[in-house]
Amino acid sequence: MKRLLLAAAVAIAFVTLTTAAGAQSPGEVITNYDVEMVIGSDGVVSFIETIDYDFGSSERHGIFRDLVRQERYDSENDRTYDIDVTGVTMDGDSVPVDEGTDGDYLRLRIGDGDSTVTGQRTYVISYEVRGAITPFSEHDELYWDAIGSQWQVPIVAATSTVTSPAPIDRYLCFSGPQGSTLPCNTATADGNAARFTASGLGLGSGMTVVVAVPKSAITPAPEVLLSERYDIAEAFSVTPVTAPLAAGIAILGVGGIVYLAWRRGRDRRWTGSAVDAAFGNISGSDERIPIGQHDAGPVEFVPPDGVRPGQVGTLIDERANLLDVTATIVDLAVRGHLKIVEVDTDERIPEYELQRLDGGKGELLAYEQTLRDGLFASGPTVRLSDLKYEFTEQLGTVKQALYADVVDQGWYRSSPEGTRLAWRALGILLTLVGIGLTVAFAIWTKFALVPIGLVIAGVVLMVLGGRMPARTAKGSAMFSRIRGFRRLFDEGEQDVRERFAEQQGIFSQYLPYAIVFGCTEKWARAFEGLDAQQLGTTYWYTSPYVFSALAFSHAVDHFGIAATGTLYTSAPSSSSSSGFSGGGGFSGGGGGGGGGGSW
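User: That's the sequence. What structure does it adopt?
Assistant: Structure tokens below.
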């Protein structure tokens, strides 16, 4: 009666499982799955899996078998298994096998891609595994998922035999879903062999066996094969070693860079009195200027030593920018080297025409000559709009000429732009080295936090690279005098009017400097009420509109905006535990296992 009930239960389970599996693999089932495991005296376990696979009416190329090659061991390591596949047959004949890895599995794709199979087929897979035995103090142990829980088809009957190099006196078997502690149908041992059976293994169910091997039966003593698990969080973990090292490198790096900036990036000045600092001393000795102690010289009513507006702008902010170029164009016009004509058009945006003139005042400096030649490369008259997309390359040349000029004047030892680029390039290099070391350390060590200090230092160097240009004592002296000259433009309007009322054209002569100082409108208000003749603008700027000093300043500001937007525009682009321990054993809890299916 008991046997009858058992048979009925198995049949019901089989029908249920087959029906449940039908949605995924219609008609496919493993009618019998037998696993033979032979533990060698050297600890190598030989496996022979015999799989009776029924494809039903489905046409498939064959089956695939996933063998576990590594699995989690502890918080830091994975346990690995060295698997050597020694043979695969189908119905007693050799069959093509494609071996490959799929995550933690060694996948065997068995079958011929150019042909299909149906009905019942018997596959035999032979392989050896090193690292499957786990050593304990009183015994060695095979705790193994003889049939893994990842099979995609139901298994009607399963058997497993374990042969040991010594008599077996302790053994267990679990079956069912992952984590199940239900015993297998049968578990017996006779001498050196143990045999286990299970039935009705549905999707997600397997069979796990545990066999104890007496100590000294395996020589040399078995060892668990471990590989350190890569974990990005561990690679960047904060430890008593990594944190101080990273902080130390960052502090040393940033401190060294700040020290360099303090030593190399500070302006120098003549030693002595304020007069010496502004005009030089007899000995020629100089010193670094304390941080934040740039003093303006006394008010000067004329540009110091005839310094030009473009030079003023470059010396003030250590950059040759578009404002300096625009001021230079206006200065060239004021000095008679070109004329600016505001053209009356129907468009809401004003148009400007530049006319080249000969015989202007003052010899042109190299950067001024470069600028004028670039503006009139196509002829003696040019519309500002015609320079759009065409002047970008010449503009770069003009800027380089301005940097070369401030070096020739002795105001800088080297080009401020070149200095910035050199230090920033060094910062980029240091950052890239730090990033490269961080990546390398993250892949191969747990010290990836350490090189981040270099990255921080590199970023700081890139930022401070813009502060590295330093004026010479001569440059600081001129800078001080220029600041004194600027005070003229900051005086009250009435004082300026009274001081320069008798000087014809002073408005135009100083207008380019007002552009550089950013006070065009304020400069114009000081001369409000004077006509174009008195302001000295008639020979270098003409406009079809009603004239006033304030309106003219707005027109000049707009010319500067138009020139900036036009001259700088580039051409658009074309677009481990034992299985015997209390509560320790369960189905799926051993090594190996895996699963498979058809393809």
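Confidence is low (pLDDT under 50) at residues 1-24.
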